[in-house]
Design a protein that fits this description.
Layout: E1 2-7, E2 12-19, E3 23-31, H1 37-42, E4 49-53, E5 57-58, E6 77-80, E7 82-83, H2 96-102, E8 106-109, H3 113-123, E9 126-131, H4 137-146, H5 156-159, E10 165-167, E11 186-192, H6 197-205, E12 208-214, H7 219-223, E13 229-232, H8 243-252, E14 258-261, H9 263-271, E15 276-292, E16 298-309, E17 318-324, E18 330-335, E19 340-343, H10 358-366
Parallel strand pairs: 3-4, 4-6, 5-7, 6-8, 11-12, 11-13, 13-14, 14-19
Antiparallel strand pairs: 1-2, 1-9, 2-8, 3-9, 10-12, 15-16, 15-17, 17-18, 18-19
Helix pairs in contact: 8-9
Bound molecules: glutamine.
């Protein structure tokens, strides 16, 4: 079955459809991970985005319920150079094609993903449309141009859980060595803006008794749980568009130890008075080098973000702690007098290296 990908700049790629049929719009972004496609597909931070993998062969180890990072496939569409139709892996319970069909997500294979990624790198992330229905180039390009894009859109409210819940699962046998397994002695409220589940596994593993609350919760609702610390999760869209969350974080900052990841880091930055901006093509992959400015050690990190906190706008009592070595953008901050810190990258990996898992232990220590 023919499928087409059209970009807002007028470029059209023709390939073969897989997964669901139909038409889907989104911001087209690329991910440089060699593995971890199922974690990418189910990461709620990709809401509203069509993701292309730079690695040329995708699907070879299938999919498994154990590798879900949320309860649904979240990407708007999926692009690969070559799809493996017959996976080989003892953990796999479904091939990628059937997995995307069951999730009603459109995929395209057989296009020149190198040409696509070079275009996105030169011109920046662009809106696009992926279709197996309408195959008329001019009509597709017009639809891509009419799509509103990411800036100014609150996508968090589309992915927050409907109600609070308890989480109590740590690591499985495959990852148990990554962090020490400690008894649950610290009460943590995790504010869910579209959280990856491996963050919850990491918090639980290091001894947090975790209650998850929706990202729309008020400061009073969070504090009513009387937590020892508060975690701010990752999530989709433009951080500056989520005013209600920034207000809540502002109220929480003076009250409790806080740890933020990705969108949580951006919301913390905004609540502290800094500004965010959109990166040209973002950081998405499992090989992003970051320098810890406190220890001068280099961490290879997993990342997925299109926005960043502008370090020149940080107030005096906020210190940059981590820097991305590819483009020198800010990857972490901490308050100099309050127990508050955050990172732009993903210390929970899923998938990716475990260099930064120490941050979960630091959060536990910060809670006393
Ligand atoms: N993974 C995330 O939390 C992403 C944060 C934000 N949506 C961005 O793209 O920058």
């Amino acid at each position: 079955m023919h499928a087409k990908l059209a970009l807002a700049d007028g470029t059209v790629f023709t390939g073969r459809g897989f997964g669901a049929t139909g038409e889907t719009l989104g911001e087209v972004v690329f991910n440089t991970s060699m593995a971890g496609y199922q974690e990418v597909l189910t990461d709620p931070s990709y809401t509203g985005q069509i993701v292309t993998m730079t690695y040329p062969l995708i699907g070879n180890y299938g999919t498994t319920a154990d590798d879900e990072e949320s309860n649904a496939v979240r990407v708007a569409g999926f692009i690969v150079r070559e799809l493996t139709r017959v996976p080989s892996n003892f953990r796999s319970d479904r091939d990628l094609d059937s997995y995307l069909k069951a999730s009603n997500v459109v995929g395209i294979e057989g296009i020149d993903t190198r040409a696509l990624v070079r275009r996105l790198r030169v011109r920046g992330s662009m809106n696009g449309i992926l279709s197996t229905a309408d195959l008329d180039d001019a009509s597709l390009v017009a639809k891509a141009r009419a799509f509103p894009g990411m800036e100014g859109r609150d996508l968090v409210s589309e992915v927050v859980p409907k109600q609070s819940f308890k989480w109590d699962k740590g690591f499985g046998t495959l990852t148990d060595h990554v962090l020490p397994h400690r008894p649950a002695t610290k009460k943590v409220v995790a504010i869910d803006y579209g959280m990856k589940w491996n963050i919850l596994r990491c918090l639980t593993q290091v001894g947090c008794d975790v209650t998850v609350v929706p990202g729309t919760a008020s400061a009073d609702e969070v504090l009513a749980h009387n937590p020892d610390g508060i975690f701010l999760s990752n999530g989709p869209g433009d951080p500056a568009a989520v005013g209600y969350a920034i207000d809540t974080v502002k109220q929480l900052i003076p009250k409790k130890p806080l740890f933020g990841i990705c969108l949580g880091h951006q919301l913390l930055g905004l609540a502290l008075g800094a500004k965010t901006f959109k990166l040209k093509f973002g950081h998405r992959g499992a090989n992003q080098p970051v320098r810890n400015e406190l220890t001068k050690q280099i961490e290879i990190t997993t990342q997925n973000h299109g926005f960043a906190v502008d370090p020149t706008t940080l107030p005096k009592d906020v210190q940059p702690t981590h820097i991305n070595l590819n483009d020198n953008t800010l990857e972490g901050l901490r308050h100099t007098t309050l127990p508050v810190f955050s990172v732009q990258y993903h210390p929970e990996a899923a998938a990716g290296p475990h260099d930064s898992s120490y941050l979960f232990e630091e959060f536990r220590k910060l809670m006393g």
